[in-house]
TrEMBL record:
Ranges of residues in domain Mur ligase central: 110-306
Gene Ontology MF terms in the entry: ATP binding; magnesium ion binding; UDP-N-acetylmuramoylalanyl-D-glutamate-2,6-diaminopimelate ligase activity
Top-level taxonomy: Bacteria, Pseudomonadati, Bacteroidota, Sphingobacteriia, Sphingobacteriales
Pathway where it operates: Cell wall biogenesis; peptidoglycan biosynthesis
Protein name: UDP-N-acetylmuramoyl-L-alanyl-D-glutamate--2,6-diaminopimelate ligase
Gene symbol of the encoding locus: murE
Highest taxon above the source species: Bacteria
Motif Meso-diaminopimelate recognition motif in this chain: 403-406
Enzyme Commission number(s) of this protein: 6.3.2.13
Amino acid sequence: MRYLSDILEGVAFTELQGSADVEISAIVFDSRQVVPGSLFVALKGTLVDGHDYIEQAVKDGAIAVICEELPAHVTGEVDFLMVNNSAKALGTLAANFYENPSSNLKLVGVTGTNGKTTIATLLYKLFRDLGYKCGLLSTVENQVNGRVIPSTHTTPDPVALNKLLADMVEEGCDYCFMEVSSHAIAQYRIEGLKFSGGIFSNLTHDHLDYHKTFDSYLKAKKTFFDNLPKSAFALTNADDKNGNVMLQNTAAHKKSYGLKSMADYRARIIENQFGGLLLNIDNEEVWFKLVGTFNAYNLLAVYAAALLLEQDRSKVLISLSKLTGAEGRFEYIVAPNKVIGIVDYAHTPDAVQNVLSTIHDIRKGKEKVITVIGCGGDRDKTKRPVMAKVASEWSDKVILTSDNPRTEDPPQIIKDMEAGIDPAFKRHCVSIADRREAIKTACMFAQPGDIILLAGKGHEKYQDINGVKNHFDDMEELLEQFKLMS
Ligand SMILES: CC(=O)N[C@H]1[C@@H](OP(=O)(O)OP(=O)(O)OC[C@H]2O[C@@H](n3ccc(=O)[nH]c3=O)[C@H](O)[C@@H]2O)O[C@H](CO)[C@@H](O)[C@@H]1O[C@H](C)C(=O)N[C@@H](C)C(=O)N[C@H](CCC(=O)O)C(=O)O
Ligand SMILES: Nc1ncnc2c1ncn2[C@@H]1O[C@H](COP(=O)(O)OP(=O)(O)OP(=O)(O)O)[C@@H](O)[C@H]1O
Ligand SMILES: N[C@H](CCC[C@H](N)C(=O)O)C(=O)O
Ligand SMILES: [Mg+2]
């Protein structure tokens, strides 16, 4: 139990009604989660305004409220704290409530359009292998030194986030590696956290439904670096067009990595094949298990961050060379008849292009590439035609299908995708809304040696249709079909 007055440090409030001398049992920002003794934080959302639920929250037992506007009438003895930005206040309050766990860990955040999960997961695996106790916050799962806690978001809400960090401190963790999504930055989910380092992977098209323009998407990512403390490192991708922009206004220690440009940490690809990558990394040749140019960037970012965290260079390289990537990222299996199936989480135009160009680079001859791909419903519509265009131009056959239609009509999402395909490539594209049927068809088309790419769902174990998450697993489907091939 904490007193409201104990958790106000750093909260810029404009008015306090009450004494703040009340015991808080929990911090809640959804009235439906209120328990007696809660502090209710009213947030203005994209669908509704949390301020409209203050009265309900108080009825259900909230004893203090943080808000931007006072409600017209509320009955009951409640403390009110007025702030200019409730979401920002929530971050600080949550950190204070859990006794600022990020100050008792070395916390490293990874941001960028693609590669966050891969980089954060590799860092987590690497530092555990080097003998440290660690935590991980990622799209696939959260982990407290080996204990798995399912994740609901790429970056959890501030209360869940600080609770997880507090669990890590309790377990004696030295490090936490976390993904920092652009939504999380814009919604102040990371407010009040103390970072030891920040890593930027790349910036390409995604989430324009939420950020509206590429420029405001870029600004959201940059804010993360703008707010890093002087004691932290800020590591950027020198080969990305916006890599240097990210570090323009940071107080942190600036460092860079790159395969092409001048950078503090450099690598060169010597071999890139299904078996893995041979890199010349800071003048040493090392084989890694991960595949593809994009993973050369991820590995280099991890290597650089580990050195910035003062780890021994050769121990880092030995350990990194043994590691596999994150679940559902370029995972492949081979059928008895030698058809290769790859499950990958590519869900942006750039990721689709990267994964397909990697397949082209590493295939041995003229094996055909068959891509099964869909686009998420209730998400950025403008990436749909571009993803389909890229898939059609880089594959011998494309099956357009569904990927979490959510509340949208699957055939309509597919139509949005079809609109991006050049007439010259239409011939080798078919549309099958049922993802299971689409995968089955791809397997029927495939000849020995051909490569099937199932894009977009990666580790996901569901298909979200109208708010219901029906069990669906691309790898499971592929294994099922491959059993039938001989
Ligand atoms: C677009 C978006 O980010 N939405 C998030 C946002 O919801 P919202 O603003 O729409 O909330 P709202 O429904 O309008 O409600 C406003 C407020 O009123 C409250 N409320 C609402 C109803 C009620 O009865 N009582 C009540 O108190 C709500 O709890 C909320 O505090 O705030 C909610 C609470 O924090 C989040 O759960 C929700 O995430 C939704 C589920 C989501 O899908 N987010 C995705 C897009 C997301 O965040 N993705 C990123 C990264 C993706 C990537 O990896 O590339 C992530 O970090 O996972
Ligand atoms: N460094 C990279 N550059 C470009 N594409 C990448 C990179 N790393 C991975 N990818 C591609 O992007 C997909 C998603 O990778 P990953 O899950 O690591 O990214 P993420 O940033 O965590 O995505 P999300 O925004 O969904 O959390 C991979 O399956 C792969 O196709
Ligand atoms: N974290 C990303 C993942 C998208 C994955 C894809 N399977 C989809 O549902 O669109 C998002 O929420 O935009
Ligand atoms: Mg991720």
